[in-house]
């Protein structure tokens, strides 16, 4: 260039807005993802039911499920022999269904806790809610506290107490730093684990102690219809109720005052969410022990794909959590067959590296 | 647009009176500046105006409606608040931040409707963030974050906006741009400011606070007098008019040693 432009820049038309390489999140439209997730869930339920010592065909599974749910007219194949039918319907299917429900509860709990504590590392297990629920369940079973109170009620009370303790230690309304939230969670978790150990030592004989220790690691074995139905209903109702608070969870992004200034009743929303999270976590723990890290793994993965808006984050986390735990449980019961691994051991093996990743991203 | 008035507004925390019988009015459609040294009660007053803290005594009125009679949601449909130094706890895009402004208008399950999208688009355009709407909030500069918060406030289609030191951490250019934008809006603004020259240039009405009390209120040339500034800030100033533009100009000369000027009595050695 030999002659510089003399024209003053301001007389030129405004430069076209430069297209910045956008860090786009939530690029995949939510309805498409939701459809995909539901399809994956249905396929996983059928596929996971196939795993086991006796071979069953996928269509037989579909037929069996349809027959037992009053939709026999649509069944594509002949009924299975009595024994196989019982195996699929009474043993394998309830277990798959329970895995789905527990996965849903833990994933949604994680998503909610992350927003309510404003901390990306929150998870019902890491924050001690699962630990408190375990203590409640063990206390009811071994000490007979509360007489006719059921195991689930004990788990619920324990979950609520531990959550309350957590918030109390964090100082109520103030926003705590992520590291403080996690450390407080460790504290609450360890405290309730210790209480559980004391109860086991004092109240249990050697046999029940071994059984409980296995249960505390998190396992979906021993799923039976009567328990599963209640668990599924409670978890579905809780997750549906949490969906009502999706706008509040979004509004928490910039803190309590910012949410209040957007018209959210912050105290009411936080109490409601705390109770609902305790209910679904307790239902999950009562049915399957303390399975960790799902609440951390699933919502983070979903956020990367679908963005942080809770209107789609919550249902997508719910379904992804279900699919995830269904397959974790398949691994748990087939990997070292005939021995079974506790599902909680597998989620911890996967979850610990994920935790490290989130931690690293948090610091950058 | 709406008028904000307070009568005998007081607020205490742990026995310390942070606001003492504040009577103030923010005129309709005007920019009202809240001035005063650190700890004079500007932020506290803004929180009470926003309904984020309940008044100890006294009232806040929007037009002729008492704040306590307005529901939280109803208030959020007319009043937007821009806080100081907010942080997000997870990754959000600029557009998602601005969409939060539609919260008071949307049902629990509603997807953003056409009107919501148009309002968000307009707010992004107004704050010159359209090209950055898919950027991650955490990657924005201080000025862009402040603009994104203002865009979120505009998406609330407010009649009144409260801003707590919105020019903090911004370079001169962004300070001017932000206040230019603010004065061009068709809303009543109450804005806490530190910079007296910016206040002189952009505010129609000023309220000067000290120790939680109103010391003076009125047009800039009535409030920004050497006597009042010396009295409240403890700084000797020269006030004149800038020859080219005619705006009020405050030139700082020296700190004064008048006892009345010491901002807050602090017990201690020496």
From TrEMBL, chain A:
SUPFAM superfamilies, per the entry: ABC transporter involved in vitamin B12 uptake, BtuC
Region (Disordered): 1-24
Transmembrane stretches, start-end: 32-54, 93-113, 125-145, 151-170, 182-203, 223-242, 279-301, 313-335, 341-359
Main location group: membrane
Cellular localization per UniProt: Cell membrane
Keyword line: Cell membrane, Membrane, Transmembrane, Transmembrane helix, Transport
Record membrane topology: Multi-pass membrane protein
Comp. bias intervals (Low complexity): 1-14
PANTHER family: FERRIC ENTEROBACTIN TRANSPORT SYSTEM PERMEASE PROTEIN, PERMEASE OF ABC TRANSPORTER-RELATED
Family: Belongs to the binding-protein-dependent transport system permease family. FecCD subfamily.
Protein name in UniProt: FecCD family ABC transporter permease
The organism of origin for this protein: Streptomyces omiyaensis
Automatic annotation (TrEMBL), chain B:
Top-level taxon of the source organism: Bacteria
ATP-binding recorded as keyword: yes
CDD domains to which the protein is assigned, alphabetical: ABC_Iron-Siderophores_B12_Hemin
Keyword terms of this UniProt record: ATP-binding, Nucleotide-binding
Bilayer-spanning residue ranges: none
Residue ranges annotated for the ABC transporter domain, each copy included: 4-236
Alphabetized InterPro entries for the sequence: AAA+_ATPase, ABC_transporter-like_ATP-bd, ABC_transporter-like_CS, P-loop_NTPase
Gene Ontology molecular function terms on file: ATP binding
Name under which the protein is recorded: ABC transporter ATP-binding protein
Organism for this UniProt entry: Streptomyces omiyaensis
């Amino acid at each position: 260039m030999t002659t510089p432009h003399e024209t003053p820049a301001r007389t030129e038309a405004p430069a076209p807005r430069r297209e910045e390489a956008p860090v786009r999140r939530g690029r995949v439209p939510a309805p498409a993802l939701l459809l995909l997730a539901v399809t994956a869930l249905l396929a996983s339920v059928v596929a996971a039911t196939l795993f086991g010592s006796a071979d069953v065909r996928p269509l037989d599974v579909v037929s069996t499920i349809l027959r037992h749910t009053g939709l026999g007219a649509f069944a594509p194949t002949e009924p299975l022999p009595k024994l196989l039918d019982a195996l699929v319907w009474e043993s394998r299917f309830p277990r798959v269904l329970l895995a789905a429900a527990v996965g849903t509860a833990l994933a949604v709990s994680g998503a909610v806790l992350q927003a309510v504590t404003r901390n990306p590392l929150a998870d019902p297990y890491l924050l001690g809610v699962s630990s408190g629920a375990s203590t409640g369940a063990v206390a009811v079973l071994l000490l007979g506290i509360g007489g006719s109170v059921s195991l689930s009620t004990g788990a619920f009370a324990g979950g609520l107490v531990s959550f309350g303790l957590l918030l109390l230690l964090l100082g109520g309304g103030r926003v705590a730093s992520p590291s403080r939230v996690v450390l407080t969670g460790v504290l609450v978790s360890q405290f309730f684990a210790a209480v559980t150990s004391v109860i086991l030592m004092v109240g249990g004989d050697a046999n029940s102690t071994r059984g409980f220790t296995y249960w505390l690691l998190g396992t979906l074995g021993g799923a039976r219809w009567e328990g599963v139905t209640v668990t599924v209903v409670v978890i579905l109702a809780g997750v549906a109720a949490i969906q009502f608070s999706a706008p509040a969870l979004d509004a928490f992004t910039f803190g309590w005052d910012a949410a209040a200034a957007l018209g959210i009743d912050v105290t009411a929303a936080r109490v409601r969410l705390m109770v609902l999270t305790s209910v679904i976590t307790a239902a999950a723990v009562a049915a399957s022990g303390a399975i960790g890290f799902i609440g951390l793994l699933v919502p983070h993965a979903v956020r990367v794909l679908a963005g942080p808006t809770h209107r789609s984050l919550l249902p997508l986390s719910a379904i992804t959590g279900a699919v995830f735990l269904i397959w974790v449980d398949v691994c748990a019961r087939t990997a070292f067959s005939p021995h079974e691994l506790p599902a909680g051991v597998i989620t911890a093996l996967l979850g610990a590296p994920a935790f490290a990743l989130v931690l690293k991203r948090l610091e950058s | 647009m709406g008028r904000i008035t307070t009568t005998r507004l007081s607020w205490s925390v742990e026995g310390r009176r942070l606001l003492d019988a504040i009577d103030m009015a923010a005129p309709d459609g005007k920019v009202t500046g809240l001035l005063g040294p650190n700890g004079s009660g500007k932020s506290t007053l803004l929180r009470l105006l926003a309904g984020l803290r309940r008044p100890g005594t006294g009232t806040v009125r929007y037009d002729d409606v008492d704040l306590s009679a307005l529901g939280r949601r109803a208030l959020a449909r007319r009043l937007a608040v821009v806080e100081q130094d907010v942080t997000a706890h997870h990754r959000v895009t600029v557009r998602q931040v601005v969409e939060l402004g539609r919260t008071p208008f949307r049902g629990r399950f509603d997807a953003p409707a056409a009107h919501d999208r148009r309002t968000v688009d307009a707010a992004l355009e107004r704050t010159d963030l359209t090209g950055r709407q898919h950027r991650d909030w955490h990657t924005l500069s201080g000025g862009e974050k402040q603009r994104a918060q203002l865009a979120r406030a505009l998406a609330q289609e407010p009649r009144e906006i409260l801003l707590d030191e919105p020019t903090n951490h911004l370079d001169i250019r962004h300070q001017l741009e932000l206040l230019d934008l603010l004065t061009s809006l068709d809303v009543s603004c109450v804005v806490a400011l530190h910079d007296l020259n910016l206040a002189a240039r952009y505010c129609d009405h000023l309220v000067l606070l000290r120790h939680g009390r109103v010391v003076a209120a009125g047009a800039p040339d009535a409030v920004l007098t050497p006597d009042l500034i010396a009295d409240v800030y403890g700084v000797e100033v020269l006030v004149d008019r800038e020859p080219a533009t005619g705006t009020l100009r405050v030139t700082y000369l020296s700190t004064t040693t008048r006892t009345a000027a010491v901002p807050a009595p602090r017990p201690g050695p020496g």
